[in-house]
Amino acid sequence: MKAHDGIYLDGAWRPATGPDTIEVVNPVDEQVIGRVPAGTAEDVDAAVRAARAALPAWAATAPAQRAARLAALRDALAARQDEIAETVTAELGAPAKLAQAVHAALPITVAGSYAELAATYAFEEKVGNSTVHHEPIGVVGAITPWNYPLHQIVAKVAPALAAGCTVVLKPAEDTPLVAQLFAEAAHEAGVPAGVFNLVTGLGPVAGQALAEHLDVDLVSFTGSTAVGRQIGATAGAAVKKVALELGGKSANVILPSADLAKAVNVGVANVMSNSGQTCSAWTRMLVHREQYEEAVGIAATAVAKYGDRIGPVVSAKQRARVRSYIEKGVAEGARLVAGGPESPRERGYFVSPTVFADVTPDMTIAQEEIFGPVLTILSYEDEEDALRIANGTVYGLAGAVWAGDEEEAVAFARRMDTGQVDINGGRFNPLAPFGGYKQSGVGRELGTHGLAEYLQTKSLQF
Ligand code: NAD
Questions:
Q1: Does residue 347 share a domain with residue 328?
Q2: Any catalytic annotation for residue 116?
Q3: Structural domain includes residue 148
Q4: Residue of the CA atom closest to atom 21 of ligand 1
Q5: 32 and 137 co-located in one domain
Q6: What are phi and psi for residue 391, nearest 5 degrees?
Q7: Predicted TM-score (pTM) of this structure
Q8: How far apart are the CA of 227 and the centre of ligand 1, in A?
Q9: Residue 340, ligand 1, Cβ within 6 A
């Protein structure tokens, strides 16, 4: 795999200040496929200074000019679609089809959506005797995870650039190669020097330096709740805005009137996709007690089909984490109906697609984010019980409701404490706001709501 041995700073690849590197490992065969610099606090500081210096000119560009750069970025990503998909397959382990259809294709759609929004958004509005200007918030520190590595980069960088902000990106250490491809695409698209900068590095070193940097105006972070909490506290102390996309433990509520087989099959597919490494995955399936055993049977049959088709999880650390949750599920008395903690292959970070039945709401596997191919199935007595269970975690990122008619499903969904709900299998909408209630985060990404995160208002009175 191609890997740059520098950081992308002020429009060029430059050597990092320290000698340390990060090895990138293919999770399928555990082979090292590349090395990237482990950036230091000094590198981060240099990148923030470049972003600060580039800010006034970029913030002053006409929205149409920024739209043109974003359209060029979309085209540059599209031209590299195959290379992007191959890179995500190599460093994340995503099966080729998923890598093409989601990991490579979705960022092109999102970059395109911000090219359009930059051109059409009302950056100025009239409110009575005032003119309200929506101005860029400034220098953005973006910290991203590995599970949808390019999507999460584009979901931050594209709206930031559309708003007129400049950016320093610190991508996940497990998936830095696709971040380097993104920097190449930004360069090719004519994004001016210093407007986008990339520092690869370790979270507690480069990530922390970026989150703590006093000259960063907004930190946008996606990742674990533990790190998000720390970043939120640091930003709070500096009276600085943050956007946090954190974990989830979403409920898939199957009401008695629903098409049970369809709801269970789609629910299983949702959890197994990307080897369960999706923050919005519906990892808790809620089924009425009278339909419970039937649903468990359908899920066991459905999951058997996934056996060899899902990829590995991202790293040895992640595999150990997922396996320890599976062991905990067994220890706490849940019934294993498929999979288990043993590795299905000798090589690679594979985890067996796993389904637990007889899961009670207080069990660890029903409360904590596992981030692996593990589905828990819970039973409920009536709708009120289902709602209590669905809302009964610290998270509130996503969810699903299935019912015989849409109105019934919508009425239930409106009572859920969560940021987005798919009704009877509704499709993902890359223009709809994405983000969480409760400890799933602060702020929204995608579409106009995602753009607004990078803007602040100035009111002029006449
Ligand atoms: P993480 O939160 O440790 O890492 C996410 C990003 O934050 C990475 O770029 C990392 O380098 C950086 N980071 C780590 N420590 C930091 C610090 N102290 N200061 C600043 N930045 C820091 O997540 P992880 O270790 O990659 O995964 C752990 C768990 O997080 C997963 O098992 C999963 O539950 C959750 N997760 C959630 C999402 C999501 O989309 N919500 C994505 C990835 C991981």
A1: yes
A2: no
A3: yes
A4: 207
A5: yes
A6: -90, 0
A7: 0.98
A8: 6
A9: no
- For residues 69 and 169, membership in a common domain is answered with yes
Residue 446 forms part of a structural domain: yes
Q: Is residue 278 part of a domain?
A: yes
Q: Which domain holds residue 125?
A: 7-246+439-461
pLDDT digits (tens, 9 = 90+) for 181-227: 999 999 999 999 999 999 999 999 999 999 999 999 999 999 999 99
Nearest CA to ligand 1 atom 19: 208
Q: Whose CA is nearest to atom 32 of ligand 1?
A: 371
Tens digits of residue pLDDT in 329-372: 999 999 999 999 998 999 999 999 999 999 999 999 999 999 99
What's the pLDDT at 309?
79
Tell me: do 81 and 230 sit in the same domain.
Answer: yes
Catalytic-role residue among 91, 279, 408, 453: 279
Transcribe 143-200 into DSSP letters. Answer: E--SSSHHHHHHHHHHHHHHHT-EEEEE--TTS-HHHHHHHHHHHHTTPPTTTEEE--
Q: Looking at the structure, do residues 266 and 136 belong to the same domain, yes or no?
A: no
Start-to-end C-alpha separation, the chain:
59
Q: For ligand 1, is residue 445 a contact (CB within 6 Å)?
A: no
User: Looking at residue 312, what DSSP letter applies?
Assistant: -
Testing ligand 1's pocket by substitution, the residue of 144, 224, 278, 394 carrying the most ligand atoms inside 8 A of its CB is 224
Asked whether residue 332 falls in the same domain as residue 230, the answer is no
Q: Which residues contact 166 (CB under 8 A, 6 or more apart)?
A: 51, 52, 54, 55, 58, 138, 139, 140, 160, 194, 195, 196, 197
Residue with tokens 């700073």: 9
CATH of the domain at 63: 3.40.605.10
* Catalytic residue check, 245: yes
Left (φ > 0), alpha (ψ -120 to 50) or beta: where does 142 sit? beta
Q: For residue 268, give Cα distances in angstroms to 120, 128, 286, 354.
A: 39, 52, 12, 10
What is the residue whose two structure tokens read 């015989």? 404
CA of 262 to the centre of ligand 1 (A): 33
Q: What is the pLDDT of residues 253-308, one digit of tens each?
A: 999 999 999 999 999 999 999 999 999 999 999 999 999 999 999 999 999 988 76
Residue 236 lies in a domain: yes
Distance CA 440, CA 246 (A): 5
Give dist(CA 339, CA 326) in Å, integer. Answer: 9
Ligand 1 mean position, distance from CA 263 (Å): 31
Whether residue 318 is found in the same domain as residue 348: yes
- Are 188 and 79 within one domain? yes
**pLDDT tens for each residue of 45-85:** 999 999 999 999 999 999 999 999 999 999 999 999 999 99
Q: How many structural domains comprise the chain?
A: 2
